[in-house]
Automatic annotation (TrEMBL):
One of its GO terms (biological process) is nucleobase-containing compound metabolic process. This is 3'-5' exonuclease domain-containing protein. InterPro entries: 3'-5'_exonuclease_dom, Exonuclease_MUT-7-like, RNaseH-like_sf, RNaseH_sf. It comes from the Eukaryota.
Length: 757
């Protein structure tokens, strides 16, 4: 006889395998069966990372043991958990909701096991499909599912110490019941009653079955009517679900079933049970189901019952303000109400006596015409961030909004960016031990980007620098932004008089000594990559320099390409500011000044620039080397829309580059971006300090120019090293090389030689 393990491995059907002694009486003999569903359940309960133990070696005693004795040993093994179709039929006939919930929890045990079982079982054998097939046996399927949902809520409430009974597990089980009923109701009535399959393998000896008879089955009169009766959704079922809001421990169960039972027909605004709909929304909010509350208000159209200021107060205070944009999406009036509420709350943070904000923005607060109350957590920076994030998200969806209409939302965004820049500047100074203005040129440019055209932010920058204990920068920026009067006045104030707003418990910025240094980026102490001595840096910002760049590119074979732009947090609209192109001809590095080309007076220069770049990217004679260029191209598409139509050819992206293969592996992924690739193949690293700087400020600083040139030149040096090492990454490079997702062109209609500019 084949072993049990062998039989299970060869089983590909839902039939049950029977092991019995040949001398056993068929009437009294109990059989052991393992169905395919039981096997799936067993597999799902095996931990993913723990392989099943190997079968024990067969002892000589076991080999001669009678089959019946082996069967008795097997009976002692733990039984497999599985709800059979017979059990489902019985529970449906008896409408035993409590037993069904208990059985399902015993089988699935936890959310994780539930998901794993679903991953390995077929759709037809899923519990909701099987339950759907047997709901026809219930006298009232809709009522049976309601009772099951109620029992589910009670079961989870009565077993709080069982850590496996999570809210997600409860949601999955509730979804199972609702899906089963939904599929059942979708099934035509004449197809709901399924014939019960006869067991042709194991038959009771007392029952004779005629397998040859051709007589049609005759149903007793009225049988179909009995089965179908009560199968449809009625108003009574809807009312029962409504009443469950007060009668079960977890009202979210009602939310899970509201679409199935069409509560929107009776509980929406203006309907018979509108108050119960409001009660459901409030119950969801009380139990912490904020996303479900949003969905419920939208489904029942109960906006009028939940005033904007009131629900905004509750959501922001609970830390769920990020859900509010979804609540009012597509509701312009409500969006403006919420924006006004957020703007007024943020206004309290700037209403102090420092005269930083123009008084016109605070007039109604000073004259008492606005009686808006402060939110209780307004003093917290994290809370302010939630307000700003919510307001900014809504502003993106609104059309024709004046900048001054919600002034404090935009101001708070820029002020948060400014604080971040100043904090990073202080950390860099602490690491360098240098407080000089020159040593922080990268961050100084970003401060200019935020403050140079805004006196309010200029004063806020000076305030922050003084508060953090910087003694060098405040007078410098006060002079630069013509804010000497404010600097002298604020610097003379005692600490307790430096409050910006009128919020009780206002938090001021930490002193610079409390900032934690960054994690060292160059832990191995590698030298920094430097430009080749013969490198020729050329700033391309005129017609003559464009023509010079075109001439060099027309005879080039290999180019390294990179781009730079200002950080997105420092500016609302960002474009590519600079493109670096390093050539294999005479060590040229062209710094293409796209910021200048985008100026309105330079439309002709921009046209020439677009044509030259199109020729470069489409030329199949020039190998273009880049690193993770998808982000660069996305912004370039936004900055130069015509670039979307370029047919890019021979662009080699080094992002997927790995270390040199060895005898034991095919190469390891390289971490650390371009700097990691540089250290791996060149033995040096990149100085990334200027990466976070103002790439739109002209002229570029010397440090910015060198940094940008290094990013392009190192790509060529890495490529030359790969060639020397005969690295597999570049073995198959030919004229069709393009390891990106960009469209490829084998031919180009233009050429550098034919381009007439």
């Amino acid at each position: 006889m084949a072993s049990l393990g062998g039989e299970l491995e060869s089983d590909s059907s839902d039939e049950e395998w029977v092991f019995t002694s040949t001398k056993a009486n068929s009437k009294t003999q109990q059989r052991i069966s393992i169905s395919a569903n039981s096997i799936r359940t067993m597999k799902a309960n095996i931990p993913k990372r723990v392989a099943p133990p190997p079968p024990p070696l067969q002892h000589h005693v076991t080999q001669i043991m009678p089959i019946l004795q082996q069967k008795k040993l097997m009976v002692k093994q733990p039984s497999l958990q599985f709800i059979s179709d017979k059990e489902l039929v019985t529970m449906c006939k008896e409408m035993n909701a409590t037993l069904l919930v208990s059985k399902l929890v015993d089988v699935y045990k936890s959310c994780e096991i539930f998901i794993r079982i679903r991953d390995i079982e077929t759709q037809a054998m899923s519990i909701e499909m099987r339950l759907k097939d047997h709901l026809c046996h219930a006298a009232d399927p809709c009522d049976f599912v309601l009772n099951t949902l109620s029992s589910l809520s009670i079961y989870f409430s009565n077993n709080p110490k069982n850590k496996d009974l999570t809210s997600k597990f409860r949601r999955l089980l509730a979804s199972t019941f609702c899906t089963a009923l939904a599929r059942f109701l979708e099934t035509p009535i004449d197809k709901r009653q399924q014939d019960v399959e006869r067991d042709l393998i194991s038959l009771d000896d007392d029952i004779e079955v005629d397998l040859i008879s051709f007589d049609d089955d005759v149903l007793p009169p009225g049988q179909i009517a009995t089965v179908v009766q009560g199968n449809d959704l009625t108003h009574q079922h809807q009312r029962k679900l409504i009443h469950m809001i007060d009668n079960i421990p977890s009202p979210v169960i009602v939310y899970y079933a509201m679409d199935l039972y069409k509560l929107s027909n009776i509980a929406s605004l203006g309907c018979e049970y509108e108050d119960e709909g409001v009660k459901l929304c409030k119950a969801l909010m009380k139990h912490g189901h904020y996303d479900e509350t949003v969905a419920c208000i939208r489904k029942l159209n109960l906006y009028a019952r939940f005033p904007t200021n009131s629900i905004a107060d509750q959501y922001f205070t609970a830390g769920h303000g990020t859900s509010l944009p979804a609540l009012i999406q597509g509701q312009p009036i409500l969006q403006k109400e919420l924006l006004s509420f957020i703007n007024k709350q943020l206004r309290f943070n700037y209403a102090g006596g420092l005269d930083i904000i123009p008084r016109k923005y605070l007039a109604d607060l000073y004259n008492g015409s606005d009686q808006t109350q402060q939110l209780s957590r307004l003093k917290e920076r994290k809370f302010q961030k939630d307000l700003v994030s919510c307001g900014a998200k809504i502003l993106k969806e609104c059309d024709a909004v004046q900048e001054d209409e919600y002034y404090f939302i935009g101001l708070s965004q820029r002020y948060a960016c400014l604080r971040f820049i100043l904090a990073q500047r202080a950390i860099q100074q602490a690491e360098d031990g240098d407080l000089s203005i020159e040593a922080s040129s990268n961050f100084n440019g970003l401060i200019d980007l935020v403050c140079e055209d805004d006196p309010v932010l200029a004063r806020l920058a000076i305030k922050e620098l003084i508060d953090t204990g910087d003694t060098v920068a405040p007078p410098h920026f006060a002079s630069l932004y013509k804010q000497q009067e404010f600097y002298c006045r604020y610097n003379a104030l005692p600490i307790n008089h430096r409050l910006l707003g009128i919020v009780k418990g206002e938090q001021m910025s930490r002193h610079r000594s409390m900032f934690s240094p960054k994690k060292a980026s160059n832990v191995n102490g590698l030298a920094y990559y430097t430009l080749p001595p013969q490198a020729q840096r050329v700033m391309v910002n005129s017609h003559a320099s464009l023509m010079h760049m075109k001439d060099i590119l027309s005879i080039s074979n290999i180019c390294g390409i990179d781009t730079e732009w200002v950080p997105t947090f420092a500016k609302t609209t960002v474009k590519t500011a600079l493109m670096q192109i390093a050539c294999d001809i005479d060590n040229y590095v062209f710094l293409l000044d796209l910021k200048t080309m985008f100026l309105p007076q330079n439309t002709q220069l921009l046209y020439i620039t677009e044509k030259i770049l199109q020729l470069l990217f489409e030329d199949d004679q020039i190998l273009k080397i880049a690193y993770d260029f998808h982000g660069d191209f996305d912004l370039l598409h936004s900055s130069i829309p015509s670039s979307r139509t370029w047919q890019v050819s021979r662009l080699l992206d080094l992002k997927s580059l790995k270390t040199m293969p060895t005898l034991t592996n095919q190469g390891q992924p390289i971490v650390g971006g371009l700097a990691g690739a540089t250290s791996t193949f060149l033995g040096v690293t990149l100085n990334k300090r200027q990466q976070l700087s103002n790439w739109e400020k002209r002229p570029l600083t010397e440090e910015q120019s060198i940094y940008a040139s290094c990013d392009a030149c190192c790509l060529l040096d890495i490529y030359y090293t790969l060639v020397r090492l005969n690295h597999p990454f570049i073995k198959n490079i030919d004229k069709s090389t393009n390891n990106t997702d960009f469209s490829v062109s084998n031919n180009t209609d233009l050429s550098f030689q034919r381009l007439q500019l």
